[in-house]
Specification:
Blueprint (H helix, E strand, L loop, with lengths): L6 H17 L4 E4 L10 H10 L4 E3 L5 H7 L5 E6 L4 H6 L1 H11 L10 E7 L16 H14 L7 E3 L1 E3 L3 E2 L11 E2 L1 H17 L3 E4 L2 H8 L24 E3 L2 E3 L2 H15 L7 E6 L11 H17 L13 E3 L60 E4 L11 H17 L16 H15 L13 E4 L35 H7 L2
Parallel strand pairs: 1-2, 1-13, 2-3, 3-4, 4-5, 6-9, 9-12, 12-13
Antiparallel strand pairs: 7-8, 10-11, 14-15
Helix pairs in contact: 2-3, 5-6, 6-7, 8-13, 11-12
The structure holds 2-acetamido-2-deoxy-beta-D-glucopyranose (6 copies).
Amino acid sequence: MAAPRNGILSWLIVAVAAAVTASGVDALGVNWGTMSTRRLPPKVVARLLTDNGFKKVKIFDADERTMQGLAGTGIETMVAVPNDLLAAVGGDYGRAREWVKDNVTRYAFDGGVNIRLVAVGNEPFLKAYNGSFDKVTVPALRNVQRALDEAGHGAAVKATVPVNADVYDSPASNPVPSAGRFRDDVAGVMAEMCRFLNRSGAPLTVNIYPFLSLYYGGDGFPLDYAFFDGGGGAGRSTIRAVVDDQINYTNVFDANFDTLVSALRRIGFGHLPVVVGEVGWPTDGDRRATPALAERFYAGLLRRIAAGRGTPLRPRARIEAYLFGLLDEDAKSVAPGNFERHWGIFTFDGRPKFPLDLRLHGGAAAAATMPAPARGVEYLPRRWCVLSPRAGGDYDDDDAWQARLADSVGYACARADCTALGYGCSCGALDAAGNASYAFNAYYQAQGQVEAACDFQGLAVVVDKDASRGACNFSVQVVGSAAPVAAAVTPVRTAAGLAAALALVLL
Ligand SMILES: *[C@@H]1O[C@H](CO)[C@@H](O)[C@H](O)[C@H]1NC(C)=O
Ligand SMILES: *[C@@H]1O[C@H](CO)[C@@H](O)[C@H](O)[C@H]1NC(C)=O
Ligand SMILES: *[C@@H]1O[C@H](CO)[C@@H](O)[C@H](O)[C@H]1NC(C)=O
Ligand SMILES: *[C@@H]1O[C@H](CO)[C@@H](O)[C@H](O)[C@H]1NC(C)=O
Ligand SMILES: *[C@@H]1O[C@H](CO)[C@@H](O)[C@H](O)[C@H]1NC(C)=O
Ligand SMILES: *[C@@H]1O[C@H](CO)[C@@H](O)[C@H](O)[C@H]1NC(C)=O
């Protein structure tokens, strides 16, 4: 419903569109999650996206604040119907129509939000959900697409379902990608869904995590197999390839993706377009979640996307992917692991962590540059809550004091993010007093620096000297953060749900 534009402007738009297509950045998107106690204003985030050349974004709902941030940017947006609405939307067409009216039609105006995809659910067939969404997802998909069609959005906006890679597997007897097939309990629903997606012209969306393959693969997983460089440098492959018929797989991403392609072929949909809904590498919370390894992973992934090359089974199909994710989210569930809160290519406050070739220049590593930081970020005052020096004296033998300290640290870490304190993590080298200070500060900042949040039974004190040490950052809260989000809305990505990644790993 764009208003008519004048000649020069539309010429410019065509020219820009052509340039964008030529450089391939249209293949690159990013996930913007908001499970955080430290949220930047949506307009600041939207500008971070445009400053770094992102043309696509995926969000996990259709939150009004987020949508207002995206309005007018032209960024192609994937909005989502959360899992807890699937039963209602699948069971009642009127409910689907309401959702589309409220969350798609409402933003369909010149200067609104450029919605292109609607994710119906998020990994609804995850093993950990015990089949709770198996019967409602496809009906919800149908209803949403029908509502989009009837509201006149159907040509531009398609409904899809992002699935976890645990919907497919290779049998233990023949663990190669070509043996890929859908899990028995979801094979029927996947076939029904693919038939519908094929008819509506929508892609299937799948989330693929080489980091999790490594994490759950244990010592049997060769580290280099998680990356795209065959063990460092072209032609110097140091890893034993997984040999599958005529194809040698040297990275788990390709093997995983092609296992899906094989599963699709088996049910007659070998040509169904596939979009990678989430792919990335975390930078903290585990000894292998580091900025250096994340840089290596993204360098390979982005070089591949820039080259326009697909996987061995679909060599000419350029990989279209949404990076996971944009910013760190300190309120995510850590059930799968402490790394969950550190998936951002930017810190929570929009500072880049490592160089990336986001413009997809391709070629040598030199193409990677430090992404542009968020502009206009406002912080609360520069002050920190730490263990009081008086309290830090010679109390080693004072059991009551030690108990009080342990209690307080436990309280803080149950309510704020202490995942950087673990072994091999950015703050893993702190002593016990440093640990306590880190925990107190995390809680104090999450509570918006209110005075009462820096007491801890008299053990804590507010200071104005930066308590950070090296890579261990004692952060300061940003202005405008929403109240802490309820744990109840935190989707799980459980170990059980990730067994698929593991199975694929041990090829
Ligand atoms: C639209 O999306 C928002 C955010 O996800 C949700 O709260 C709201 O209930 C949705 N509207 C309808 C009518 O379902
Ligand atoms: C799935 O089943 C397991 C084992 O029966 C149970 O522990 C878990 O809470 C269930 N999860 C859901 C989402 O129902
Ligand atoms: C997929 O859709 C095309 C038309 O778009 C159709 O020709 C084809 O038969 C469909 N494939 C299957 C397996 O249904
Ligand atoms: C795959 O690797 C094997 C050795 O593991 C080698 O003999 C074969 O030539 C390779 N095939 C291709 C297509 O590179
Ligand atoms: C600091 O805290 C982490 C995480 O709670 C813990 O694993 C570590 O042992 C603590 N270090 C000291 C010296 O107390
Ligand atoms: C720590 O984070 C703050 C923002 O919270 C930032 O200004 C500062 O540069 C960071 N320090 C380090 C060492 O990264």
